[in-house]
Amino acid sequence: MKTAVVILNWNTKDFLRRFLPEVLASAEGRDAEVIVADSASTDGSMELMERDFPRVRTIRLDRNYGFTGGYNRALGRLKDDGFSYYVLLNTDIEVSPDWLEPLTGWMEDHPDCGACAPKLHSLYQREMFEYAGAAGGYLDSYGFPFCRGRVLKMVEKDEGQYDSPKEVLWCTGACLMVRAGLWHEYGGLDDRFFAHMEEIDLCWRLQLGGWKVCTVPQSVVYHLGGGTLPQSSPRKLRLNYRNNLLLLENNLAKTYALRLFCGFDKDSAYALKAAKKACRIARATIFKRMVIDGAAAAAYLLTGKPRYFAAVIKGHREYRRLRRKESPEEVAAYLHANAGAEVSGLCGFWIVPRAVFGGRRVFGLVHKLG
Questions:
Q1: Looking at the whole model, is its pTM more than 0.85?
Q2: Strand, helix or coil for residue 138
Q3: What is the pLDDT of residues 47-96, one digit of tens each?
Q4: For burial by CB atoms within 10 Å, which of 24, 120, 191, 344 has the most?
């Protein structure tokens, strides 16, 4: 089999019953295998699989390791199975019969692409993009993610404005194809994230290694969204604030260093100087982002949302505990090995005030990005 479509399940039996048959039908005869990995569900998910889908391979984990730990363990068991590509697919995704072929075709035709994804539409408003990834994502200057088709909580109608394949910074983890060899080479997802923004981190790391990340609009899938944690969940908010900082800590210094090092010989003594400056700029950016987060926390408190205030504070506290500081020497060593890498989709403006004060006019800016 060339492609493993791996669905990570945790207590979403009803989604498996509803959406899995179409996934199986779409994989039939297409050199693909559908595998369900279960995070120790207690809702009868595995009993459903045994009864209704006995021929589908399952991977049973001993507990819920989150999105990151679950996929890392599940795909680790597939390492020697000879797959070329992995597709990470949420349980609440509805697919069409021909969704997979454009993705595998793109990867076959573009050997420099490390990961790609389809357009993500809303399951119930089928002409609208869906929040989790729309048509591929960017980050603004302070690390706030936004998408072609989604900015903050605003989404666009798909009128063909993003129908050209495009290099982006990240693609949604709700439906993400990754080269199997690269998944294992880069260590999969960062276990510290548990859930949320881990796919942005993986895509960014792939780009830092010289690989491209692309959206392939010829493939479209439909996402229900919020299947595990609703948007209003304080836990989700805590994970988002924490992981956004981890994301910047992991990748920002190297990205700045690449820009500073551009045009210099890869063996140049300038590498360490560029790395030191990049680390300073990255620390300053992360500090500014934490100040912005602090202002958001104060706003939550003043508007009678103490649980959201606590979520931001806990997220920052966990970030400080989990962070791994990277030395200038480590960044310089990275430069020597990856001087030709390029990072697409990291923007030089702050998207939040443009969206807050400009409303839907902000999509004009997104259109200019492609």
A1: yes
A2: strand
A3: 999 999 999 999 999 999 999 999 999 999 999 999 999 999 999 999 99
A4: 120
338 in Cβ contact with 286 (< 8 Å): no
Question: What are the domain boundaries of the chain?
Answer: 3-223, 234-339
C-alpha neighbours within 13 Å on the C-beta side of residue 328: 14
pLDDT-based confidence at residue 370 (cuts at 50, 70, 90) = confident
CA-based nearest residue to 224, from 370, 34, 56, 89: 89
HEC secondary structure over 304-317? CCHHHHHHHHHHHH
CA atoms of 186 and 181, how far apart (whole Å) = 9
Could you give the CA distance from residue 182 to residue 206 in angstroms, rounded to a whole number?
Answer: 8
DSSP character string of 45-89: HHHHHHHH-TTSEEEE-SS--HHHHHHHHHHHTTTTS--SEEEEE
CATH T-level fold of 3-223: Spore Coat Polysaccharide Biosynthesis Protein SpsA; Chain A (3.90.550)
Spatial distance between the Cα atoms of 221 and 23, rounded to a whole number of angstroms? 11
What does the pLDDT look like over 168-201, one tens digit per residue?
Answer: 999 999 999 999 999 999 999 999 999 999 999 9
Alpha-helical (H) ranges within the chain are 13-27, 45-52, 66-76, 100-109, 180-185, 198-208, 234-261, 270-302, 306-322, 328-338, 351-358, 362-369
